[in-house]
Amino acid sequence: MTTTQGPVGGVSVSRETFDALQAFDALVRRWNPAINLVSKTTLRDLWIRHIADSAQVFALCPENAETWADLGSGGGFPGLVIAILAKEQRPQLRVVLVDSDLRKATFLRQAVQTLGLSAEVISHRIEALPALNADVLSARALASLPDLLGYAHTHLKRSGVAIFPKGARFKEELAEARKFWNFDVKQHPSLSDPEAAILVIRNLHRHD
Predict the structure, then answer these.
(1) Which of 42, 125, 130, 141 could form a disulfide with 49 if both were Cys (CB 3.0 to 4.6 A apart)?
(2) Exposure on the CB side of residue 81, measured as CA atoms within 13 A
(3) CB 183, CB 200: distance < 8 Å
(4) Rounded distance, CA 85 to CA 71, Å?
(5) Strand (E) or helix (H) holding 186
(6) CATH of domain 7-206
């Protein structure tokens, strides 16, 4: 029987899931001195700046999603957090973590194994990957929005949704992206940064 622990990034989690997130927190802290998964300045606030910030992305997952691809997963944000939350709340969701850095991919695989997650790690450059055909695509602190939409165009199903956390300049990035792409977007306020937003993008098409 599971007991509710409380919300993390707007997502209610059980005691078991909360414990898994804490175990992941410990893994990041253990590996960080060797391969710099997150910056030293944010390590003190790892839970808020990275874990809770990633959990709020999972909260926007469509009900019928079967495959979630996270590009440039790095230290596992948001991809590993999504896999941890999905283990209990969306057990049918297949999570794919992509990072070309072999050391970070090794960390991701170790975390998947240690935490008993249903996730695949792919250590290739995004540009060299065959289409992932994902229902959901995410990326955090990876590239500008126009470039991210290029990845989404390749790796999302036509009916898929891209979920991109963006910082204070997200309106400028949206304006730049519209020079090259047509899309529908919904802006969700970030729970961890009042100047940031999470962009949920659908119906993506390149300009004719």
Answers:
(1) 42
(2) 31
(3) no
(4) 18
(5) strand 181-189
(6) 3.40.50.150
Q: How far apart are CA 110 and CA 176, in angstroms?
A: 38
pLDDT in tens, 170-192: 999 999 999 999 999 999 999 88
- Domain ranges in the chain are 7-206
Separation CA 50–CA 61 (nearest Å): 18
Q: Enter the tokens of residue 183.
A: 């899309």
Q: Taking the model in full, what pTM does it have?
A: 0.93
Q: CA-CA-CA-CA torsion for 64, 66, 70, 74, nearest 10 degrees?
A: 120
Return the structure tokens found at 17. Answer: 């899931």
